[in-house]
Amino acid sequence: MANPLVMIGIVIFVIGMIIFLFGKQFFFSRAFFGDRSMFAQIFWGFIICIIGAAFLYFGGAVG
Fold first, then answer.
1. How many degrees, rounded to 5, is the angle at CA 49 between CA 8 and CA 38?
2. Is residue 9 a contact partner of residue 61, using CB atoms and an 8 Å limit?
3. What whole-number distance in Å separates Cα of residue 26 and Cα of residue 2?
């Protein structure tokens, strides 16, 4: 069975990448975050990716 931190990290990282890369094209994600600023979406996508990468690191999948 895979480490739960790794599985959570993968999911969070992928969600962050989707928000970071495709956020300006999906209206729902802009409405969810409460503003229409592309820079805010890039910022939050980056933060979520960092959190996912931290889960992967502490789960032992990276480094």
1. 135
2. yes
3. 32
